[in-house]
């Protein structure tokens, strides 16, 4: 059975974490640490469609692997629930043997695995800010804002595919739960 923790790579979770990470008021723990290291990482990371597509494929494979590997699922849940900056989560993933090995085997670093969705979402938010005649945050690289504009259709398709897969997964979970309850009776 799949749990919410297996959806960690999902865009919705990343968006929630990003909004919390970049809010004006940092948590006391983060404020004491100084500047947000995610901001410079986002600025310096340049998106390509190949990177985004690789992330989309790999995140699906990771969800499937975690569904069959309870140790990996526990590692992912621990990373998800830890109150640290996103770049620090990449370091936590690197220290998670099953998850780190999976990413390495599939040709992606933990840092890239964290930065691709984080950068894409912040660039999309910045593009929306510009569309509303606002000013995007300075830490969002203009090249990534342009990337989002240039690849809007492809990114929307990936988002729709992810939502469709999530819906299918939820339906399978519900069917499995119903089947288990019938067996008990």
Brief digest:
With 185 residues, this protein is mainly alpha-helical. It has ten helices and no strands. Helix content is 75%, strand content 0%.
Domains (count): 1
The major beta sheet can be summarized as:
none
Shape: globular
Q: What distance separates the N and C termini? A: 19 Å
Q: Structural class of the helix and strand makeup?
A: mainly alpha
Order of helices and strands: HHHHHHHHHH
Helix run count: 10
Number of β-strand runs = 0
Rounded mean pLDDT score: 81
Helix content: over 70%
Ranges where pLDDT stays below 50 over 5 or more residues in a row are 1-26
How much is the radius of gyration in Å?
Answer: 18 Å
Share of β-strand residues: under 5%
Write up this protein:
The protein is mainly α. The protein has one domain (about 5-25, about 40-185). The protein contains 10 helices and no strands.
Index terms:
185 residues, mainly alpha, 75% helix, globular
Task: Give me the secondary-structure topology.
Layout: H1 11-21, H2 28-33, H3 37-44, H4 49-68, H5 70-81, H6 86-94, H7 97-105, H8 110-131, H9 142-150, H10 152-184
């Amino acid at each position: 059975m799949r749990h919410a923790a297996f959806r960690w790579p999902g865009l919705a979770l990343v968006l929630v974490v990003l909004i919390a990470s970049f809010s004006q008021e940092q948590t006391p723990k983060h404020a004491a640490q100084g500047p947000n290291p995610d901001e410079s990482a986002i600025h310096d990371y340049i998106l390509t469609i190949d990177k985004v597509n690789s992330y989309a494929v790999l995140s699906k494979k990771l969800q499937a692997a975690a569904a069959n590997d309870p140790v990996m699922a526990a590692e992912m849940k621990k990373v998800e629930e830890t109150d640290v900056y996103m770049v620090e989560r990449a370091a936590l993933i690197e220290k998670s043997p099953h998850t780190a090995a999976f990413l390495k085997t599939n040709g992606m670093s933990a840092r890239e695995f964290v930065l691709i969705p984080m950068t894409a979402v912040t660039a999309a938010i910045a593009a929306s800010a510009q569309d509303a005649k606002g000013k995007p945050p300075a830490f969002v690289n203009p090249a990534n804002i342009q990337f989002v504009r240039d690849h809007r259709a492809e990114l929307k398709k990936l988002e729709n595919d992810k939502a469709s897969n999530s819906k299918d997964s939820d339906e399978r979970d519900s069917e499995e739960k119903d089947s288990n309850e019938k067996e008990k009776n």
